[in-house]
Specification:
This protein is an alpha+beta fold and 204 residues long. It has four helices and eight strands. The protein folds into two domains: 129 residues, OB fold (Dihydrolipoamide Acetyltransferase, E2P) (Beta Barrel), CATH 2.40.50; 31 residues. A six-stranded mixed β-sheet has the order 5-3-2-1-4-6, with no helix packed on it. The chain has a two-stranded antiparallel ribbon with strand order 7-8.
Length: 204
């Protein structure tokens, strides 16, 4: 075999080895998740669980340009770990690093401005701020009915309560009208009864 053919063969072999190494590296660096726990267990394992609408998604260094993605959400209700109406949650910059990010216009998982999400977050960050990823039960609110049913009663920030919020109550707004209606009925019944008594006395 000529020297030129030998060198060419070696180059091809090295190129094949390099491609195999890159493929293995890609597989090795891909995010690998266990199946997420049930909603109640996920609630216990998380530091914060809440429903929020995405206000902004900020990529440090430009979109998908490196670093953690910061997502600002406006909280509508929560189950634990939230102390204000706005929360910033971080996630990795891409799904290969388990980031809960939207990497295409038609993505089905990942934070997008204007959409509501049920977020399960933990304080993995060194500064104690919240973090989430695709291995959690974080998802679009429209896909979270199973979780909402299992999690049960939540809190809001409309009225203060001992836990820092107000328990969500679908009938609380009816309390005052119902009270007024009951009082009105009692007054009317009393007046009718009183008139009957007076009418009976007059006949005698």
């Amino acid at each position: 075999m000529s020297r030129g053919l030998l060198i060419l063969k070696m180059k091809k072999t090295l190129a094949l080895v390099a491609l195999c190494a890159l493929a293995m590296l890609s597989v090795g660096s891909a995010c690998s998740c266990m199946y997420p726990p049930a909603p109640k267990e996920a609630l216990n394992q998380s530091d914060a669980v809440f429903v929020g609408r995405v206000i902004s998604v900020d990529f440090p260094g430009g979109e998908l340009g490196g670093g953690s993605v910061s997502v600002t959400l406006e909280v509508s209700k929560y189950w634990k770990g939230v102390t204000s109406g706005q929360v910033i949650v971080t996630t990795a910059e891409n799904s290969a690093a388990c980031g809960y990010v939207c990497e295409s216009a038609d993505c089905t998982a990942g934070f997008k401005e204007g959409y509501e999400y049920l977020v399960y977050a933990s304080d993995y960050n060194s500064d104690g701020s919240l973090n989430t990823n695709i291995c959690t039960r974080t998802r679009l609110l429209s896909d979270a009915q199973e979780d909402l049913t299992a999690l049960g009663e939540s809190y809001t920030f409309s009225v203060q309560n001992p836990a820092g919020g107000n328990k969500t109550c679908d009938v609380c707004g009816l309390a005052l009208p119902l009270t007024v209606a009951v009082i009105a009925v009692v007054v009317i019944v009393g007046l009718v009864y009183f008139k009957k008594i007076r009418s009976g006395k007059n006949k005698k």
